[in-house]
Structures are given as structure tokens and as C-alpha cells.
Amino acid sequence: MTGPALQLEQVTASLGGRLVLHAIDWTVPAGCFVCVVGPNGAGKSTLLRAAAGLIPSQGTIRLGGESLAGLGPSARARRAAYLPQDGGIGWPLPVRDVIALGRMPRGARLGSLAAADVAAVAAAMRRMDVDHLADRPATELSGGERARVLMARALAVEAALLLADEPAAALDPRHQLAIMAELRAEARAGRTVVAVLHDLALAARFADRIAVVADGCLVADGEPAAVLQPGLLDRVFRISAIVETRDGQPLIVPWIGLVDD
Description:
With 261 residues, the chain is of the alpha/beta class. It has 9 helices and 12 strands. The chain has a 6-stranded mixed beta sheet with strand order 6-7-8-3-9-10, sandwiched between helices. A 4-stranded antiparallel beta sheet has the order 2-1-4-5, with helices on one face. Strands 11-12 form a two-stranded antiparallel sheet. Helix 4 packs antiparallel against helix 5 (143-156). The longest helix has 16 residues, at 173-188.
């Protein structure tokens, strides 16, 4: 990959005839863990779906310096793995096979996985703490277990860019911390991770950069300590917060609304 991992230039997108993204200009450096935050309905999920090429958009989107419009579906899937919000599993496949579906962009076929595919699936299961579920039908999982399995499937792609929509939402606190640590480890290993989050505390602790989306516009993008300032929290989220530092990392606790409804 050459150049930024992801680059958007004047990107707009509409859903149901309503303009959701307004001329977004955004560059995500390679090897970076970026958390996208913002109020409900701000356009965060639409931004990820547009970046993955899953919805029509206008403007220019580049993955690793190449135009998204010039890449076919298989090439897109190899370059950018996408984890949707509230992903479902409709077939009672064993968990191992569900995760192995992440290897299909690499040419794998269920029932005849190459050694590299087997190793990638095993590593993804171990990282998401689901290896003990390998033989269980995926339709019998709890919501949190299912979320970790789908995250493992996205990791198994071994794409240069991972786009994850609310990856920690269904998890208990221990697994929330674990999955955020794994996403940061992905970035430290040279891949790029963009994750939509509602939890400002998790974003502040683990992200290299935070992008703030409000009313379909990118209103801030930078290091957590620089972005999560009282004025922005008031303007965008209508809250105040306790902002401190612990072990050299930002610690943020949303506290009280500043504006009454």
C-alpha cells in the first residue's frame, strides 16, 4: 500500500433521498487506529459504508492510493474488511466455518482450506477468545459471542484496512477492553483500523486519532487529547465531561448535560 490508507475527497452520500454526508474531506494515515465518534444519526455508519463501497456516493474515495471506483468487489474485499453494526448470522454453521468465510476474498473455499487459511482462522479465533466455540453452531451464540465471532471473521481477512462499526457495543467490559486492545494491535502491526464508537472513554484510551462527525460533516480530526475538549463536547454532544490522564492515556467520563432539552 502506498500513500494514506483511506482518503476521501468531497464525498457526499444520500439515503432514501436525504443527504447524509456533506462533502467530506478526510485522510486516514496508514498504520493508524482511528475512532469515529458523534451523536446518533450524525452519519458515522454511512461514512464507513461509503468508504467500503457498499453504498453509492459522489466524490473520490481512495484505498491505499487507488480509486475505489476502479476496484472490483473481490479487490475491495481484500483491501478493506468491513464489520457491520448488528451483524447477523442466518445459518447454523460451526463458528470455525463462519470465521473461515473471511478467507474467501483470498480465494479460500470451505472444506478445502489451505494451511495459510487454517492458520489465519485459528489466530483470529484465539485473538477474539472464541476458539472454545469453534464447533458450536453460530446460531446458538449469545449476542456478545456472536459479535466476537464476526470480529474474528473480519480479522481473518488480513486486509490492510479494517472498517468496524460499533465493534464493542454488545460486549461485557472485559471483552470491550480486549477487543479495543486487539484493534490497536492491528494498527501497531502495520494495518489501519477505523472504528465507529459511541463510548468516548474507550475511544480516548485506545485510538491514535479521533474523528468527530456531526450533522453529516467532519467537524474535528486529531489526537484524542486535542479533540475531546470541553467546547467540542458541549457543541457536538451537549455534555460536559471529566477529562484526566491516567498512565499517560486520556481518561474521559461524560458527566452532565450543559443544555436542557
